[in-house]
Write a structure and sequence with these properties.
Elements lengths: L2 H20 L30 H12 L21 H13 L10 H17 L15 E5 L2 H23 L5 H5 L2 E6 L4 H10 L2 E5 L9 H13 L3 E8 L11 H10 L3 E5 L24 E4 L1 H4 L7 E5 L2 H8 L12 H4 L8 H8 L15 H35 L4 E3 L7 E6 L3 H14 L5 E5 L2 E7 L7 H28 L1
Parallel strand pairs: 2-3, 2-4, 4-5, 5-6
Antiparallel strand pairs: 1-7, 6-7, 8-9, 9-11, 10-11
Helix pairs in contact: 3-14, 4-14, 5-7, 5-11, 8-9, 14-16, 15-16
């Protein structure tokens, strides 16, 4: 394919994607395929001779689309949103065209500098304390990770290294292995499974802190667990607070937890993967109060800020804690603009930002290579503006309250957790088996798509407002569909119970 054909085929692909997204609600939201459907449809080996674009392209509808779950359908209410917008898609195309691997400033100056500035933009949009921004005194800063899971892992590993060094400075007789064996991380019993996975990768113990009746962790619960573990000779070093839990969008009490972590010298990381986007709206910013006590903070623009996957924003108060845990700089990655060489020649007032730019973003992440992901943020933030993004968030929240109202009008159902943002947790009053059967009937019908969760011992259905194009009519249709399926199910359920 030469440049001339690329122009032609590129236009065709843009038309195809635009048509796909414009007409997506006509497609069945969940596919009619079974595991292994795809292999019989494609050759066993790669072709020896080149195939035409036409041949490849026609197989998209024939082979790929039949197995796609349409996350951007207005009838998709599962998981949490996976953001997308036309500006983000165009920026991603440009990212692929530039094709840089921006691990250092020299590897692609624009890649490093735009990311640093975009994370400052984002931080200001949610009113993060200035300590987290690169533009103030240069101690903190932001970086784009691939996911919230990566952000949590990076924070935990940095906290582990910092704690080991601190303990060894106080008790040099202890080996690293001895200290590692006593380290303990903590998270809510409602925290995402990625926190536990981070502890597994980091080879440290992790304990769940019990949440209260609102599925939130409070200060007294953390104090109790810390006292028990310290009495047992363990070393608490990391706590992951969650704002907007996956199960029910509950919020840990930062204003109680933060001072405890600071007093006990425990790294507090905040995972706000979904909910964090809402903090650009002043009426929801209070949910982030207490972030000033945190060492690191993360949320996913790729969930709710119309930036397509992957784009997970992470900030640290002291980037030296992060870089100090991972910095390796072989000769082939060094360049003549290294921080130590350049700073004496830089005007004093520019030192903070220059340090942030030249610290090398490869030291802020697990992999070396990194894509030019900040282009997506740059396009979306400029083309929607803060006001446009705020309206997108507020629309989703209005729709979630519409669904909540519909549920509350039906005495057969109950709401299982406070509806704060765009997630509604609900269930039929009755057994878990009854609700499992309802969910199965919903997803078997394939008109809408939902996923469940467990809240304590209850099997609960989650209704998440996801699509950029979802409207009130889609929510109303979804509820009518659920209500009718519930009627049919209860009739059958009662008949079977009567026969028994």
């Amino acid at each position: 394919m030469d440049a001339a054909e690329f122009r032609k085929r590129g236009k065709e692909m843009v038309d195809y994607v635009a048509d796909y997204l414009e007409k997506i609600e006509k497609r069945q939201v969940f596919p009619d395929v079974e595991p292994g459907y795809l292999r019989p449809l494609i050759a066993d080996c790669a072709p020896q001779d080149p195939e035409s674009f036409e041949d490849v392209f026609k197989d998209v509808e024939k082979i790929i689309m039949p197995g796609v779950t349409h996350w951007h359908s207005p009838y998709f209410f599962a998981y949490f949103p996976s953001a997308s917008s036309f500006p983000a898609l165009l920026a991603d195309m440009l990212c692929g065209g530039i094709g840089c691997v921006g691990f250092s400033w020299a590897a692609s100056p624009a890649c490093t500098e735009l990311e640093t500035v975009m994370l400052d933009w984002l931080g200001k949009m949610i009113n993060l304390p200035e300590e987290f921004l690169a533009g103030k005194d240069g101690q903190g800063g932001g970086v784009i990770q691939g996911s919230a899971s990566e952000a949590t892992l990076m924070a935990l590993l940095a906290a582990r290294t910092k704690t080991i060094r601190q303990v060894q400075s106080e008790k040099p007789e202890l080996t690293e292995a001895e200290i590692m064996g006593r380290l303990v991380a903590y998270a809510s019993d409602q925290a995402h499974s990625s926190v536990e996975r981070a502890a597994l990768i980091g080879a440290v113990k992790i304990k769940n802190v019990p949440s209260d009746d609102t599925f939130s962790v409070c200060g007294s619960a953390l104090k109790k667990v810390l006292a028990e573990d310290k009495a047992a000779g363990l070393i608490p070093f990391f706590f992951c607070a969650t704002l907007g839990t996956t199960s029910c969008c509950s919020f840990d009490k930062l204003l109680e937890l933060g001072p405890i972590c600071n007093k006990e010298n425990i790294w507090m990381h905040i995972d706000a993967a979904y909910a964090g986007s809402a903090f650009i709206c002043p009426e929801f910013r209070h949910l982030l109060n207490g972030v000033e006590f945190a060492d690191s903070y993360n949320f996913n623009p790729h969930k709710w800020l119309l930036v397509n996957f992957d784009c997970s924003a992470m900030w640290v108060k002291k980037r030296s804690d992060l870089i100090g845990a991972f910095k390796l700089e072989p000769l082939y990655l060094q360049h003549h603009h290294q921080e130590s060489e350049l700073l004496p020649a830089v005007p004093l007032q520019r030192w903070p930002l220059t340090r942030a730019l030249l610290s090398g973003l490869q030291h802020w992440q697990i992999p070396l290579g990194r894509r030019f992901r900040s282009l997506k943020l740059w396009f979306v933030l400029r083309m929607y503006g803060v006001k446009g993004l705020q309206e997108h968030i507020r629309k989703h929240i209005r729709l979630s309250h519409q669904f909540e109202h519909l549920v509350l009008q039906d005495e057969r159902f109950e709401i299982c957790a406070e509806v704060v943002l765009g997630l509604v947790c609900f269930r039929l009053k009755g057994s878990n088996e009854l609700n499992e059967a309802l969910l199965k009937s919903i997803n078997d019908a394939k008109k809408i798509h939902l996923v469940p969760c467990h809240l304590r011992e209850k099997f609960v259905l989650r209704f998440a407002i996801c699509s950029r194009t979802v409207e009130s009519a889609h929510v109303k249709f979804a509820w009518q569909h659920i209500s009718q399926l519930a009627t049919d199910l209860l009739k059958t359920w009662q008949q079977n119970h009567h026969q028994q």
